[in-house]
Specification:
With 945 residues, the protein is of the alpha+beta class. The chain is 33% helix and 21% strand. It binds one RNA strand of 87 nucleotides through helix 9, strand 13, strand 17, helix 14 and strand 37.
RNA sequence: GCCCGAGUGGCGGAAUUGGCAGACGCUCAGGAUUUAAAAUCCUGUGUCCUUACGGACGUGCGGGUUCAAGUCCCGCCUCGGGUACCA
């Protein structure tokens, strides 16, 4: 009994593809190329999750389709394998992170092959391969060798950096140190996330709400020598080049917001005696606006220079360099205490305190350059040292934070912007300082600028400030430079040597490891357990590794390692030329294949990975190593696959049911009674126990009790994780692929449903039976399939299907493509004659979606080679439309009748046909026809009363 | 708070430029086949009224534009995601 048996078919075809290298990338691109890329996975110990194959199936369908339309396809897969979990595992089990990682990669490869993806496995790479990270280190050295020329907006070799004469005269070391200040990769003393409980430093992404992602321990900020990458230099290009790519608008916006470009002005407030203000202004006008701020002024950044007349006080960050200088002796103890407290505060505490504003008066005043008014200077932690100039002019009438602060400390509030007339803001309250208005409007209380609209005012006042040399227009970004080092073992070592003096101390001179000495491999380290101090584990390497001697000089290797992002910043380039031993990529191949045409992955990488990769790409582009300014032409984010829908009900301590709308979640994520906070039992219901009542679900046994119905994110703790291995074993890989595509639109998140998997399996069974004689002893074609000449109707069915499926693959509308194929099968299983000439093209249509089954049936239809490169079926437009159409006839927009007519009737003819329709004629009796709208082949609407 | 995204049957979801709401699948019900079951095949399945013929209502809510609105405009509500003192 030859039943559809994926467990037998699928491994057989996977072996066939493997042995015949069916999906090996051609060495030459002929005709059009397609580079279809998945965001490569982190090979976790848990193995593949059903979320992975969603995007992978999508790119696989696109790739398989592209091969059939004659494109040359690059479709690779690799692994982003550095990272904390492997290191943690190694510490716990006293094992090697490399072995653990390799084991996990093997599992992933096995699982991916089980799904029948058409990857070119000869190009498999892992970021942990020594041959791979050799080039990651090389790219780091490119960054190290590059400075950003702001005038040309371009990264250039450090050797081209203009050196001031006085530096040049001070000798070679001075020049090297000067250059070091401009490199895109540079050292700095930055605060890091130090977690005392875990005894380790954490990456930002491992800190959630000021607590460690693992174990919820508090995290402190402490300064440490770190490597930084000057991504801020590329902020403008990273923002403006988004115009060149075909990405979802939402993702572009996320990146823009993350870059956070804002325009405004820097303004200097004079610090000194009142009678010195006029002379100061005069000197300024004469000497111009100083690039480096002199001691006699406090510089602020504002996006609203138009509110300068409303600045009633100033605030500097507790970490601001001028705090001490500005603090009067009288205020010194209070200010010192405040700043010390702020430094001690963990991020968590700062978050908790965010709602209430605190601060302390320094005792000094600054003079507003526009009106000569003295304003008090405060210190407060709601101003960040790391943004703008670390100081602000506070305009409480027009900024919510300043308003709150002014109310707390009873500072004056002066309104200087009137809201537009149609606004609902209460003007009287605004003028009285009772409310705050942050929008735009027209100026008031601003002397000669009164009545100017905000925008005009801004431009005018920047001009004024500029000509008086007390301010200038300025741009700021939320984007910070990228903290690029980690104090971990399992990452790429930096290819940097620090020169040591006789005593073994760093001289401050750095030397890149030369290309011929790359890669710098990870040394053997006995034990990389955290030891309570934030020193990198590589400090424990033996002296031979740690202290190389070159040309008689002793060096110490850099012992920080790169973050996990490093390897994923350029892997898409290496896939093009994975075995190149002499370069990171062959320039000719790069020209052939770049950019990536389609890039699919999760939205969790919308900002960081995509921004970092674009940054590296631009640096490599500037330095002439690449020919495209952007790496990823089209980007699609797949939605999240949630667990099966769950029904939950709640019981109180007396075992009484509590209706869902009376409950809420408390801070500890426990479900409690809204009114009393009493903790409730959460009861998972069988779907049978719930039923729909109005807009909600209720208990069948007590319809007064509302229950919760929703799908949750899959998680181990919730126990709703679906393992792809299990689905493949039970339904087959083709069913899993098809189901994940059939669930809904690719970009949308959607709940898993086992019944749905069964549904698509049913469809594949029907495909099988459409062609296979199930009752026969041996595998053979169904008697219905043969060399019949097809009927018109059958031909139309095929051509309609080809058209729809082809279009849907192009727009990535896989769910509707599948439903069209279902319609085809539903139609033909009812036909007693199924012409082979129509069955063959159908199998080709199905093949990108369910490749194993398609290959099997293709062979059964008498073909002896793989269908992977068969030409994609073509359709004839004229054969996709029916000769007759059914046209609804409406009266006043309501359908009253339908007529079947020949396609292509004119509006005039339609009108006549509609009025002659007996049913319509009866209904129109006694009514006056006012107007008839007839849309050919669509509908007729009669307006009558 | 702010910024995105989404609300369509019991469920997942379909619906070129406004033009037959509910394609396709699941679920459920009935029937055929079968000694029986599984499998398969057929029929039905938005809500309400009606014995029926048929009719009324219906795309989160309230308004509007239009011959015609799931689709366009205005005002809300709910859910999901992101982000958080960025001046």
């Amino acid at each position: 009994m030859p039943k559809y048996n994926p467990a037998e078919i699928e491994p057989r075809w996977q072996r066939f593809w493997d042995e015949n290298k069916t999906f090996k990338t051609p060495t030459e691109v002929t005709g059009e190329k397609l580079y279809a890329l998945d965001m490569f996975p982190y090979p976790s110990g848990e193995g593949l999750h059903v979320g992975h194959p969603e995007g992978y199936t999508a790119t696989d369908i696109v790739s398989r389709h592209a091969r059939m339309v004659g494109k040359t396809v690059l479709h690779p897969m690799g692994f982003d394998a550095f990272g904390l979990p492997a290191e943690e595992h190694a510490i716990k089990h006293n094992a090697s992170p490399r072995e653990f990682t390799e084991k996990n990669i093997n599992t992933f490869v096995r699982q991916l092959k089980d799904l029948g993806f058409s990857y070119d496995w000869d190009r498999q790479i892992s970021t942990t391969d020594v041959d791979y990270f050799k080039w990651t280190q090389w790219i780091f050295l490119v960054l190290f060798d590059t400075w950003f020329d702001a005038d040309q907006q371009k990264g250039r070799p450090i050797s081209e950096l203009p050196i001031p004469t006085e530096i040049k005269e001070s000798g070679e070391d001075a020049v090297r140190k000067y250059q070091d200040e401009f490199r895109l990769a540079f050292e700095s003393h930055a605060p890091v996330n130090w977690c005392p409980a875990l005894g380790t430093v954490l990456a930002n992404e491992e800190v959630v709400d000021g607590l460690s992602d693992v174990g919820d321990h508090p995290v402190q900020r402490m300064p440490l020598r770190q490597w930084m990458l000057r991504i801020t230099a590329y902020a403008d290009r990273l923002e403006s080049d988004l115009d060149q790519v075909d990405w979802p608008e939402g993702i572009k916006k996320l990146q823009c917001d993350w870059i956070g470009r804002s325009t405004g002005a820097e303004v200097d407030f004079f610090i000194g005696d009142n009678d010195q203000f006029e002379p100061w202004k005069k000197t300024r006008t004469e000497n111009g606006f100083p690039r480096n701020l002199p001691d006699d002024a406090l510089r602020v950044y504002t996006t609203r220079p138009d509110t300068l007349y409303g600045a009633t006080y100033m605030v500097i960050a507790p970490e601001h360099g001028a705090v001490e200088k500005l603090t009067t002796t009288e205020q010194a103890p209070a200010v010192k205490k405040y700043c010390d407290d702020a430094a001690m505060k963990s991020d968590r505490d700062r978050q908790d305190d965010r709602t209430k504003k605190t601060g302390v008066f320094t005792g000094s005043y600054a003079i507003n350059p526009i009106n000569g008014q003295p304003v008090p200077i405060w210190v407060a932690d709601y101003v960040l040292a790391s943004y703008g100039t670390g100081a602000i002019m506070a305009v409480p009438a027009h900024d919510a934070r300043d308003f709150e602060f002014a109310k707390t400390y009873d500072l004056p509030i002066i309104a200087v912007v009137l809201p537009p007339a149609k606004s609902e803001i209460d003007q009287a309250k605004l003028m009285a300082g009772e409310i705050c208005f942050a929008g735009v409007g027209t100026a008031v209380n601003s002397e000669i600028y009164n009545d100017l609209p905000t925008d005009e005012f801004k431009n005018k006042i920047i001009e004024t400030l500029d000509s008086a040399a007390v301010g200038c227009s300025a741009v700021n970004y939320k984007l910070r430079d990228w903290l690029f080092s980690r104090q971990r073992f399992w990452g790429e070592p930096f290819p940097i040597l620090h020169e040591l003096d006789e005593a073994g101390n760093r001289t401050g001179i750095m030397r890149p490891v030369p290309l011929e000495s790359l890669p710098v491999d990870l040394p053997f380290v006995e034990d990389f357990k955290p030891h309570g101090r934030p020193e990198p584990p590589l400090e424990k390497a033996d002296d031979e590794w740690l202290y190389p001697v070159i040309d008689g000089k002793k060096y110490k290797r850099e012992t920080n390692t790169m973050p996990q992002w490093a390897g994923s910043c350029w892997y898409y380039l290496r896939f093009i030329d994975p075995d190149n031993a002499s370069a990171f990529i062959d320039p000719e191949l790069e020209k052939q294949w770049m950019p990536v045409d389609l890039y699919i992955g999760g939205a969790e990488h919308a900002v960081l990975h995509l921004l970092y990769a674009r940054f590296w790409h631009k640096v490599l582009f500037d330095r002439g190593h690449l020919h495209t300014p952007e790496p990823f032409k089209k980007l699609v984010n797949q939605g999240m696959i949630l667990g099966d829908v769950e029904f939950t009900a709640f019981r109180d301590t007396n075992e009484q049911w509590v209706s869902a709308e009376l409950t809420c979640e408390n801070d500890e994520r426990k479900t409690v009674l809204k009114s009393t906070g009493e903790e409730l039992h959460v009861v998972k219901l069988d779907p049978e126990q719930a039923e729909k009542e109005g807009d909600n679900f209720v208990l069948k046994s007590d319809q007064q009790i509302r229950v919760d119905s929703r799908a949750y994110k899959m998680s181990k703790s919730r126990g709703n994780v679906v393992n792809p291995d299990v689905i493949i074993a039970e339904y087959g890989a083709d069913s899993l692929r098809l189901y994940e595509m059939f669930m809904g639109p690719l970009h949308q998140s959607k709940p898993w449903s086992m019944a749905g998997v069964n549904g698509v399996r049913n469809f594949l069974d029907r495909v099988w039976r459409m062609l296979v004689e199930e009752k026969a002893e041996e595998l053979c074609l169904s008697s219905a399939v043969g060399d019949h000449s097809p009927t018109d109707e059958q031909v139309r069915m095929l051509h309609k299907t080809i058209k729809a499926v082809s279009k849907d693959i192009e727009t990535l509308g896989f769910n509707t493509a599948i439903s069209r194929m279902m319609e085809f099968v539903n139609f033909f299983t009812k036909q007693s004659e199924r012409p082979k000439s129509l069955m063959e093209p159908f199998i080709l249509l199905l093949s990108p979606f369910a490749p194993h089954l398609a290959e099997e049936l293709w062979k059964l239809l008498g073909n002896d080679s793989s269908l992977a490169y068969e030409p994609w079926p073509k359709f004839d437009e004229s054969l996709t439309v029916d000769a007759r159409v059914e046209v609804p006839i409406q009266i006043m927009g309501k359908i009253k009748s339908k007529v079947s007519i020949e396609r292509g009737k004119s509006a005039k003819e339609l009108e006549t046909i509609a009025l002659q329709d007996p049913k319509i004629a009866t209904l129109l009796e006694g009514l006056t026809v006012r107007k008839i709208i007839a849309v050919p082949d669509k509908l007729v609407n009669i307006v009558a009363n």
